[in-house]
Amino acid sequence: MKTAWEKYTEEEKTQVFAFAEEYKAFISECKTERECVRKAVEILKAHGYRDLAEYEKSGETLCAGDKVYANNRGKSLCAFVIGEKPFKEGIRLLGAHIDSPRLDLKQHPLYEDGGLLLGKTHYYGGIKKYQWLSIPMALHGVVCKKDGTVIPVSIGEDPNDPVVGITDLLVHLAKEQLEKTVRNTVEGEQLNITLGSIPLCTEDDSETDRVKKNILKILKERYDFEEEDFISAELEVVPAGPARDYGLDRSMIMGYGHDDRVCGYTSLMALAKTERPDRTAGIILVDKEEIGSYGSTSMHSRFLEGVLVTMMHLSGGFSEYELRQMYAHSDMLSNDVSAGYDPNFSSVMDKNNCAYLGRGMSMVKYNGSGGKYHCNDANAEMIARVRNLLDEENIQFQTAELGKVDAGGGGTIAYILANDNMNVLDTGVPVLGMHAPHEVASKADIYEAYRAYRAFLKKI
Predict the structure, then answer these.
(1) Cβ pair 238, 36 in contact under 8 A
(2) Which of the residues 45, 146, 223, 449 has an alpha carbon 20 to 30 A from that of 428?
(3) What is the C-alpha separation between 75 and 311, in angstroms, rounded?
(4) Whole-angstrom distance, CA of residue 203 vs CA of residue 207
């Protein structure tokens, strides 16, 4: 099978690289779900979208061509452009998650030991814990004070900022550590970030926790919050620094959070370029997928249904019957990354049924684990319609599974909306090093996914 690179004209390659630059800027700036939602709203507004709440407040009627978005607690979002046909004839939907594996500061994180101030963390999502040692990391998030003030925090991204990190055991003393299994090389409670080492100067040198007091003084001066405010904070420890071109030919991107912001961004930009479709077209970007899709900002919440009900109400009237008809006639692409073939670890891949970097967007009929557990298994009719669309639009795609049958597995948000009776198919971008602090994706695959999502919203 030829790669997408071999089919591109020079003009098309220029478009691929230009799109990649915009995407690199997005994932370099947006390292938390809150940052992704904030940036997505900015992009949507620039393309003429209005907050759905404005329509509710004013009582305006939604008409074909209107563009709306709804922001759920700053951590998930959906947006739609209203189509010509009534809702009961179905909608076209792109879904992706915008949370990524990371470390979260605990609610009482700070402790001093050996002249160092450390912060205790709890890892979020499936990670290989040893990969998060000895790399520069940044602090992103918010601190919410009792008076309602919300303070955004970002430390470690500006070239003049300090970074934080987790130190590893020196190899000279690691005999016992090196005999452990990879899973147990470092325990979760050892993932403590180093925050500082200068003690606060006081008249009483016997005073305890002086390094901690000095760091709290710095945080108070810079961000105006106290130690007790960590209780109501969401502070994420993520890899520091921007996404970078990867490979001497600059054909790939290495960065934090391809899973799944690469599909979130391509879905977002596909919708932003969609004008007045025949059927209502939209996206939903959700939180909490990496921990099972539980919670009010996850795909399991009824946020999307609430938005759909509101839009139906503002478009002429809501009924439960029409809502159920809409679900039954709707088509969704659940967009999440797939495992790219890595020659260094070929033993876990079925070479005939895996995704390869540079061969285009991946189409995944099913995922799950051992026996297809916990997955959506798309029906053949849905796949045939998508295949036909992609071929008509000359969009490069490939089929994929998540490794050999008993090698492991994973899931997406696809099954959740399939449970509401939507036609749902998993698609995405192949990635190397999924869930590592830095993942790798092909610029060609990213661009082909964007093209596929634009075509889907317009024609499927």
Answers:
(1) no
(2) 45
(3) 21
(4) 9
Rounded-to-integer distance, Cα 383 and Cα 414, Å: 14
Q: Strand 281-286 and strand 92-97: pairing? A: parallel
Q: Compute how many other C-beta atoms are within 10 angstroms of the C-beta atom of residue 416.
A: 23
- Residue closest to 314 by CA, chosen among 75, 40, 51: 51
Task: Name 301's Cβ contacts closer than 8 Å, sequence gap at least 6.
Answer: 72, 76, 295
Q: What is the pLDDT of residues 35-49, one digit of tens each?
A: 999 999 999 999 999
Nearest-angstrom CA–CA distance, 226 and 455: 50
Angle at alpha carbon of residue 10, lines to 9 and 12, rounded to 5°:
65
Tokens of residue 282, six digits: 């939209």
Strand pairing class (397-399; 361-364): parallel
98/85 Cα distance (integer angstroms): 30
The DSSP code sequence of 147-165 is TS-EEEEEES-STTS--BB
Tokens of 346: 């070929």
- Per residue in 201-230, pLDDT tens? 877 777 889 999 999 999 999 999 999 999
End-to-end CA distance of the chain: 25
399 CB neighbour count, 10 Å cutoff = 15
- Residues 163 and 158: their CA atoms lie apart, in Å, by 10
253 strand-pairing partners: 245, 441
Q: Rounded to the nearest 5°, which phi and psi values hold at 143?
A: -120, 125
- Number of Cβ within 10 Å of residue 197's Cβ equals 13
Q: Which domains occur in the chain, in start order? A: 4-100+256-459 (3.40.630.10), 102-239 (2.30.250.10)
Residue holding tokens 């790939």?
252
Q: Please, which residues have CB within 8 angstroms of residue 152's CB and are 6 or more apart in sequence? A: 141, 142
Cα–Cα separations (whole angstroms), residue 138 to 29, 192, 259: 12, 13, 18
Spatial distance between the Cα atoms of 183 and 164, rounded to a whole number of angstroms: 23
The residue assigned the tokens 């105006």 is 224
- Asked if residues 266 and 458 have their Cβ atoms less than 8 Å apart, the reply is no
Tokens (6 digits) for 319:
């009924």
Summarised one tens digit per residue, pLDDT across range 76-110 is: 999 999 999 999 999 999 999 999 999 999 999 99
Task: Check if the beta carbon of residue 110 is closer than 8 Å to that of residue 131.
Answer: no
- How many Å apart are CA 377 and CA 379, to the nearest integer? 7
pTM for the predicted model, two decimal places? 0.96
